[in-house]
Design goal:
The structure holds 2 protein chains of 2 kinds. Chain A is 12% helix and 55% strand. Chain A is mainly beta. Chain A has a 16-stranded antiparallel beta barrel. The longest helix of chain A has 28 residues. Chain B is mostly helical. Chain B has 5 helices and no strands. The radius of gyration of chain B is 20 Å and the shape is elongated. Chain B starts with 7 loop residues before the first helix and ends with a helix. The chains are: A mainly beta, B mainly alpha.
């Protein structure tokens, strides 16, 4: 074949490909299919704990890529930087933390089940999966039970929600398995567990239970219960969680009430929050290994009060005061800050019908 | 080590939450009556009424679900809304039917 012919062929193929690409791009632009979205939040907090001042700017970003009708890819990373003085007003220092919160593929198999694979948040209780993002949580201080059960999993999960028969109750479930992974920022434990919940839309009441079994180290297990109630008659949200663990992690519970003053015209952007919690350290023999003794917490009571001011649904000023009571360690924490949640389209976003 | 008693501030927090719950309990209507508009639309067979029913159902599902975890979000353009509602379906385990009704309501 002579060179001119070869060139003409390549050119023709090129033009064809370009045409195909362009026409599918045009089709994509005109279709109503969901587009990739970049979302996340930025926050800036100042925390004062017993004379120690910390400034904490943070940014979380989450990329959502829908594919076809049934697939969704989610990837989220966190970054925060802390700078401040040492306890008692000493030297200034700073540190950063970053991490891959999750990177998962979701496949909506049918109306009863979604299959999730990759790195995801363990489905336990309501805090880590739902309330943890700083633009969502009503109080910036995390509950004392959260370190026990929060964590990431690397593996697979089945989850779903559907109405129970003809009753007016929705049932939801999530079961997962996670492999052991020792890579330091991505570390996960070998574990299995799940959560079930019952939601009554007419009362906006949800109750549920969770379970987790560690399949390594001391093979401890955790059980939890949760409740969320949002009556229609008053702008109140009540949330509570209780966690019991075997092994040396301890038990605890928290209950939180958030009241939005939406019925008072001048104060409708204000939200008042209160939370009470108790943590009970596990009883371990004083001769246990130092590793075990170090991880045993202290019995603690804690009360937190907060005022949030919603400038918009995605932008708010958050302030709180918390007091922590445990043996030889009663302390106060003041927090004031700002959270902003963003949602950006990565493609033609369409216009309403 | 044990902190046996509840400290006064923790009790105050409990009392505040208790009070709020009691007020919610006291003001919750004991029997729910269906909104007349829904009932009217449901019995009529015209297309417009059908649309109205769908819209009201969508709004109802939105109210029941979308302010449970975070402040109720605004409407976003339709192709963003599709992604967001799919994400929330997976995250919050709303049902298939709710997802469709909410998506419809949020993209009108």
């Amino acid at each position: 074949m002579d060179n001119t012919l070869k060139f003409a062929r390549t050119k023709a193929t090129g033009v064809l490909l370009l045409g195909l690409l362009l026409s599918s791009a045009v089709m994509y632009c005109q279709s109503e299919a969901p587009i990739p979205v970049m979302t996340g939040s930025v926050g800036y907090f100042t925390k004062v704990t017993e004379g120690q001042v910390q400034n904490i700017p943070s940014i979380d970003s989450l990329l959502l890529v829908p594919i076809g009708d049934k697939w969704l890819i989610e990837a989220k990373s966190d970054f925060s930087h802390t700078w401040g003085n040492q306890q008692g007003g000493g030297e200034y220092g700073s540190s950063s933390s970053y991490g891959l919160a999750y990177a998962q593929v979701d496949y909506i198999a049918n109306r009863y089940m979604t299959v999730v694979a990759g790195r995801f948040i363990q489905p336990f209780g309501i805090y880590t999966e739902r309330l943890a993002p700083n633009w969502i949580r009503s109080l910036q201080a995390t509950p004392l039970t959260v370190p026990i059960t929060s964590g990431s999993a690397l593996g697979g999960m089945l989850r779903g929600g559907f109405p129970l028969g003809t009753t007016k109750i929705n049932f939801d479930y999530a079961v997962y398995f996670s492999a052991n992974n020792t890579n330091h920022i991505l570390a996960t434990d070998r574990s299995t567990g799940g959560r079930i919940g019952f939601f009554v839309p007419a009362l906006r009441l949800e109750v549920g239970a969770s379970f987790e079994q560690l399949l390594q180290e001391d093979r401890s297990h955790y059980v939890g219960g949760h409740l969320v109630w949002q009556p229609y008659s008053v702008p109140l949200t009540v949330r509570a969680e209780v966690v019991r663990s075997s092994g040396f992690y301890g038990n605890g519970y928290w209950i939180e009430g958030a009241y939005r003053l939406s019925q008072v015209p001048q104060l409708r952007r204000l939200e008042l929050v209160g939370r009470a919690q108790q943590f009970f350290a596990a009883r371990v023999s004083p001769t246990a290994s130092s590793d075990v003794l170090d991880s045993v917490g202290k019995d603690t009571n804690q009360a937190d009060f907060g005022i949030n001011y919603y400038l918009r649904s995605d932008l708010r000023i958050a302030t709180s005061y918390g007091r922590h009571f445990s043996l030889n360690d009663n302390s106060n924490q003041w927090v004031v800050g700002l959270t902003y949640r963003f949602v950006m389209p990565l493609g033609p976003k369409g216009s309403p019908r | 080590m044990k902190v046996r008693t509840l400290n006064s501030l923790v009790l105050v927090a409990f009392a505040m939450i208790g009070l709020a719950v009691a007020s919610a309990w006291a003001t919750t209507p004991k029997k729910s009556t269906p909104a007349p508009a829904v009932a009217a639309a449901a019995t009529s067979s015209s297309g417009a009424a059908q649309d109205d029913t769908m819209r009201l159902e969508g709004e109802k599902r939105f109210r029941a679900n979308c302010a449970r975890c975070h402040a109720a979000p605004p409407k976003f353009p339709p192709r963003m809304m599709g992604t967001i509602v799919r994400h929330m379906r997976v995250r919050s385990l709303i049902t298939d039917e709710e997802m469709r009704l909410i998506l419809r309501y949020m993209t009108e």
